[in-house]
Prior knowledge:
Elements: H1 18-30, E1 45-49, H2 61-65, H3 73-86, H4 88-99, E2 104-106, E3 113-120, E4 123-134, E5 137-145, E6 150-163, E7 165-178, E8 189-193, E9 197-201, E10 209-220, E11 224-231, E12 242-249, E13 258-263, E14 267-272, E15 279-285, H5 307-310, H6 312-320, H7 323-347, E16 356-359, H8 364-371, E17 385-388, H9 390-395
Parallel strand pairs: 1-2
Antiparallel strand pairs: 3-4, 4-5, 5-6, 6-7, 7-8, 7-9, 8-10, 9-10, 10-11, 11-12, 12-13, 13-14, 14-15, 16-17
Amino acid sequence: MSSGSSKDEGGGVAPQNKGSWSSFLKSIASFNGDLSSMTAPPFILGTLSLTEFSAYWTQHPSVFVAPAAEKDPAKRALLVLKWFLSTLKPSYSTRNDKYGSEKKPLNPFLGELFLGKWEDEAGTTELVSEQVSHHPPVTAYCIQNPKHGIKLEGYNGQKASFSRTIHIKQIGHALLTLTPPDNPSAPAETYLITLPNIHIEGLIYGKPFVELNGCTYISSSTGYTGKIDYSGKGWVSGKKNSFTAMLYPTGKEKDVLYSVDGQWPESFTIRQGSGKHGTVIDTYNSRNAPITPLIVPALEQQDPWEANKAWEKVITAITKGDMDTTNIEKSKIENAQREYRRREQSEGREWERRFFTRSDKAEDWWEVLAKGVGERIEAEKTGGVWRFDKAKAETARRPFHEGMSPTG
């Protein structure tokens, strides 16, 4: 944990909450196991479920669909890299911007759904997010824009641990597919996207925020690789939430075609060539980029298994600061889920996913893309390999689980 004076410790916590915050820090420091199972102090509980986080991939639909209109394959790969970098601020900084610090999300229950769409100049972009596994917890998602022939799908789980601070390893991957604009009959291009690891800074001050570390890759079937290196503020120098990135022909990391640098919650600069001596060809301001609001059905139109409807009473209680009701309503869902699992086990059946299907291993083409960037499946840590099932999706209708409710 970062050092700080006793005067600064807990400085971001209201006086009435300092005791519970101090106890929480001591408990995570001595906890042995997955931290996601721990109970957090009420004042850092968020009102968003992890199934809703899938929407952060596409807050800027025009940036998401832009690669599908680019005819040059290298520039197309660059636009995929630009889009991915544009998703980092929504994904990892939104809660901090809104609430002043990172919040612990609601842990989704098996079968939880989050459905919505974006409508703007890019057309209609559709989102499906489903909790496909509870032990281990895994969320799968599919985002597609039929007008532009582009689709993103993927799944991820998280494993949290403590060593000086909270570390979160994201397990899983995303796949972006698109049809080249100059050859609609050609096979779809695929971009394998690996996920960054996370650690939480600012804990001792009571104002936690996300920092990314390590590196991630975008490996394309067109023969280009994007590499992103993340770094944070060090003891002596550096700026928080910093990164550098480059795009190069696969297997030729020294032959840099394009380079990018900046701070992902703020802005970044794209250059042709390597490093800061390259020619500036584009800039992106993460703070000023227009956000297209996600459209979700009104609560009265939602199915009981959709996140906002299912967690409605819990969210209301958290918003009011009523932790007794929060715990009562959360327990109703948790107890019902345990009962569903008990029945399934006794009857020798498995929970039916509405939009995704599990496989035991990845496709051959996935292995080819993954080999060059050192990615592996780790299916045992995500309950399998999860893929969007078009046939299931075409028949999925409300009510999604007729006669059943998340609360039993």
